[in-house]
Amino acid sequence: MASWGTFESEIFAVHEDGVLRNRYWDGTAWHPWEPMGDGFAGAVAASARAADRIDVMAVDTRGRVRHRWWDGTRWVEWRDLAGAPDARDVACSWIGDELRVFVTARDGSVWYTATR
User: Fold this and answer.
1) 7 neighbors 19 (Cβ within 8 angstroms)
2) Residue 55 in contact with residue 99, Cβ under 8 Å?
3) 3-class DSSP state for residue 70?
4) CB-based contacts of 58, cutoff 8 Å, min separation 6
5) What is the pLDDT averaged over residues 100-107?
6) Which residues of 28-48 are buried (b: 16+ CB within 10 A; e: fewer)?
7) At 28, is the secondary structure helix, strand, or coil?
8) pTM for the full predicted model
9) Which residues pair with 39 in a beta bridge?
10) Which of 6, 51, 68, 113 has the most beta carbons within 10 angstroms of its beta carbon?
11) Which strand ranges, in their side-by-side order, compose the sheet holding 98-105?
12) pLDDT tens string 20-54
């Protein structure tokens, strides 16, 4: 889940079919689930810097950490998170102007990066 502004929130979930979907609360009502891509295994993290920047990280069925973000007008296409190990879990958080990402690798080790 990521929230921004006074009332807005967005949730992300991998459904049983492996499709990552999102829906958001606009302060008045929940909007329907929308698909964001398939082939995911269940680990999802999201963080918002502002309404014009929401980042989503998700682990796919091959263990890759995938990254997508809202740029204020559209969702940018999925990209691999460069340098990340094969993962079983992911977490992310904006701190100032850095997006900090933590990955639990399949071997149990923890990997970290910060991007702008």
Assistant:
1) no
2) yes
3) strand
4) 12, 14, 20, 40, 43, 44, 45, 65, 66, 68, 90
5) 97
6) eeeeeeeebbeebbbbbbbbb
7) coil
8) 0.93
9) none
10) 68
11) 87-95, 98-105, 110-115
12) 999 999 999 999 999 999 999 988 999 999 888 99
> What does the pLDDT read at residue 42?
81
Tell me how crowded residue 94 is: count the other CB atoms within 10 A of its CB.
16
DSSP E strands, 1-116: 2-4, 8-14, 20-25, 34-37, 40-50, 53-60, 65-70, 79-80, 87-95, 98-105, 110-115
Largest CA distance in the chain: 44
Q: Which two tokens stand for residue 113?
A: 């990066």
End-to-end Cα spacing for the chain: 20
* pLDDT tens digits, one per residue of 49-86: 988 899 999 999 999 999 999 999 999 999 999 999 99
SS3 (DSSP) at 61? coil
Identity of the amino acid at 47? S
CB 103 within 8 A of CB 114: no
Residue among 106, 12, 102 at smallest CA distance from 54: 12
